[in-house]
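Take a look at the protein record below and flag anything odd:
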Amino acid sequence: MVEHIAVIGSGTMGRGIAYQAVISGFNVTLQDISSEAVDNAQSYIEGLAAKSREKGYIQQEQYDNVFQKIHYTTDLPEAVKYTDLVIEAVLEKVDLKMEVFKQVNEHSPESAILATNTSTMSPTEIGASTKNPEKFIAMHFFNPVHRMKLIEIIRGLDTSDETVEVIKSVAIQMGKETVEVNEFPGFVTSRMNCVIGNEAMNMLMEGVASPEGIDKAIKLGLNHPMGPLEMADLVGLDTRLRNMEYLHQTLGEKYRPSPLLLKYVKAGRLGKKSGRGFYQYDREETLL
């Protein structure tokens, strides 16, 4: 039974996972190597909780949990010492993820399940670097975590059935639906999302239509709830670029990143988190 969840990495996904976990009744520790990042995550989580309570999205008990059942730290050994489940949410770099799990293995209980929140990478490869690959799995959350209903669950070669069932029960407690996906680069959603988004960027570069026009066409013509350029801004253009580069390397030419994506990342236009991507944003838009 999972009662305590440690989330490693307090960026966009990590803080979102931590928030969803704590309002779902879990005890949570959120860790990052940067004290500034941890402080920013705490401000985000408490601000989101306040706005969500004000709008009636969460109950008073859930709001209270945000201040009573979550701990923030820069100390990884402390974060995982007594945990039942570790969810890693660091950058999409396989070497970095492996290094994180090497440290986690040294300090977490033998019984703990280890999960990577990767959107593209192999849980078999990452899990092979751990002591107990049968207790390793991928949980692919979606941004913003508190609003998106899906978690893709991807087992590695050695992942046990028991581990899968525990993760499904955690997802249910978080109010999520799950899809079990066979391991393959990009899984289901990232492969589709990257292709659509990349083509939208190429069309923008070619002058086919404006960002607003492309997104409106996809939303009203294909019934997507969000346009592909809006989605890329939400994910983060640097994150999207890393995903595209990995898929290009593993799956071939159709995943070659758009030159426009490369240009925007070099310019620091990373989407919502930087205030500017294909659109411009103010700070209030980054919460709800």
Q: What stands out?
A: Strands lie at 4-8, 27-31, 70-73, 85-88, 113-116, 136-140, 150-155, 177-181. The chain has two domains: 4-181, 188-274.
